[in-house]
Design a protein that fits this description.
With about 120 residues, this protein is mostly helical. It has 2 domains: about 50 residues, no CATH class; about 55 residues. The protein contains 4 helices and no strands.
Length: about 120
Amino acid sequence: MPYVTHSGAGSESESGIAYASTSSKKPQDAVDRALDYYLKPTTVMATVHAPSSIFVVAPDVDNETLLAHACESLASASVMASEFAGVLEGVHRNTMLALQQVLMLGELAVNRVLDNVHKP
């Protein structure tokens, strides 16, 4: 249905477009809800995520040990993603290879931090 605009005061809707009928407003309502969902911050998104305490890293573990473990975990995950990509095809293979690259970049970043920790 075509949208009708009017130049008279008070005849335009909030978005500046008056609707030819009430049924033509339904698609715009759906668009507004979708835009609000993706673009307007909500209290759900603003809440801080508190991780579960079922698994806890010992508080006395030093940073270098934690970084080394993180680096080894990322390296292992990278290898697993690469191996898994070998049995996939098409889009799924490309997605897994992209995931593997992100893991590898994380590993490189953690390695750099480890290198920086060792500098005098």
